[in-house]
Amino acid sequence: MKIHFIGGGNMARAIITGLKQNNFDTSAITVLELDIQKRQALAAELNVQVTDTYAEFRNTDIIVLAVKPQQLKAVCAELKPFLKAQLLISIAAGIRIVDLARWLGDYHAIVRVMPNTPAQIQAGISALSAGTGVTDAQKLQAESILAAVGSTLWLESEAQMDAVTAISGSGPAYVFYFIEALQEAAMKLGLNANAANLLALQTVAGASLLATKSPDDIKTLRAQVTSRGGTTEQGILTLESENFKEIIFRAAKAAAEKSVRLGDQLAQ
Length: 268
Description:
Helices cover 53% and strands 13% of the residues.
């Protein structure tokens, strides 16, 4: 299986690294990258082939579109003459399959993916949606590539991608923001910066790991920590009095609505 990446940025690197760690022969991967220094680094560090032209794209099985959304329309114009029956995987946020298909001259073998930044340590979650021209075999290929950087989830419809963007795409930033808040709270309560950092990071990391490994659901795990009349209950009551869950919902809703608007703008 030959794979060509257009763009050699962080997410492309993460996927290639994950494939390498899963014993994929990275010499079968070619990366189109215009920056010569990035090309040299990719070849040296990941043992991939590198190029600055589209000439070799006719002879590949899969093309991963890993450029910024604002660049994708121009990239499609360059790529269009080299398409035959290759599977296209787009990880560009906000760009809908219908618009990619239109830019590529009514080409429909497209899988749209929303990964997230923990993919950089192979701990991500990627949501996938397939275009009408994607075969079952190509779906398996797309899934196997994204599985190299974490879990995968096929959506019931592409319309759900805006919600995915708000939850798992933007979600790591919400978690980092919460960690920041814990750190600041710790210091206000008298702990030094090192202690605040360690306690906040390990608490969030440990709780997340417990949630993924425990047979109990999240609500049950929370109840197990929240003894009646105890310190944790007092903290939870404060969060509830401030409508913490409603704040999280409003943040996610705002992100999802922004995703819809960006999709509309980028389609033009």
